[in-house]
Amino acid sequence: MSPTANKTLTIWLGVVSFFIMVLVVFGGWVRLTRSGLSMVEWRVITGSIPPTNETIWQETFEKYQQSPEFIKINRSMTLEEYKFIYYNEYTHRMIARFTGLLFVVPLFYFLFTGKIRWRKSGIYLAVGLGFAFQGVLGWYMVSSGLVDRPSVSHYRLTAHLLTALILLGLTYWAILDIRYDTVKPEDRSVRKRLQWMTLFLFLILMLQISYGGLVAGLKAGHASSSWPLMFGRLIPPDLLSVLQPWWHNLLASPVAVHFVHRWFAFVVLAGAVVLYYKVKERDLPPIIAKGAATMVWLTIVQIIFGVSVIWFYVPVWLAIVHQGMAITLFLATIFLNHRLWYE
Fold first, then answer.
1. What is the dihedral of CA 183, 189, 190, 195, to 10 degrees?
2. Which burial class, exposed, middle or buried, applies to 143 when counting CB atoms under 10 A from its CB (0-12, 13-18, 19+)?
3. What's the rounded Cα separation, in Å, for the pair 213 and 170?
């Protein structure tokens, strides 16, 4: 592939990656402003046009007034206040559709002009299908809050978040494939243990991010505003006895989910520190050592942000910064995995 084609593909994938990150962060804003349930219909084509006059706005608002969120939480909401949350959700959906088209339309062009070879198109086709799946999953998530509860399923919200990150990870991996050599390193035996350690670090980071999604869905960030203690104790009382069976608390009890998320962060930090020292013991390219060190520092900064979110009782701007840092950590782990598996 020519350098010009490589540059074109890198710019395209980079722009797509940027908009995926914007979607994830803006999705956090939508959730924190309780805007996600403002659009009670999923219309792929006609839903691309917002209400154009006061009559249509009133009709749209009346549909929202039939939703559990309005009935149980927002009964005093005015039309002007409704417009604010509507435009938040509307903007999120439009960015999502634009990003999907930004990926799919050029993909067809690159495939049929040979800039992307069909035998190497698997990762690109997976991302394209992933965008379609993400759209359906987004509505499946929203629909869970339109029946009898004023909030979406925290399981579906977490799945929606993870799917977005998978799309981002695949897109970023494709950029790294273009940017760097993808030849298997000659020192594979030296790297083998580090490769598995880095993969393990990626998996525990994904678990921590998943718990972040559960915290968001359950609004468990408000469960405690103190750190390191919760309700005056290091381990809060009845942590695993609120729900039955006991393990269900780890997935559905706001206090237990909050507790796991705040302390599992240190498991991720420990994994990053161990990996860093193991990398230092081996004669590897400097970029790998820098990547491992970056993982450690990013994890420390993320923990500081997480504790600050707790202390200041989940201010919107700080919660969004915390979410953005999670994306940065995720990409750093992807980069480190790529450089260890390839020369």
1. 70
2. middle
3. 20
Take residue 255 and report the two structure tokens written for it: 């206090």
Rounded-to-integer distance, Cα 74 and Cα 239, Å: 31
Which domain covers residue 279, as residue numbers? 185-343
Cα–Cα distance, 187 to 340 (Å, whole number): 10
Q: Which of 148, 179, 210 is the last residue of a domain?
A: 179
DSSP at 43: -
The reply to whether 149 and 85 lie within a common domain is: yes
- 259 and 117 both lie in a single domain: no
Backbone angles phi, psi at 110, to 5 degrees: -65, -35
Amino acid identity for residue 212 in this structure: G
Q: Tokens standing for 158?
A: 């977490």
pLDDT one-digit tens code per residue, 124-164 = 999 999 999 999 999 999 999 999 999 999 999 999 999 99
Distance CA 239, CA 260 (A): 10
Nearest alpha carbon to residue 323 among 302, 339, 301, 308: 302
Name the pTM for this structure. 0.93
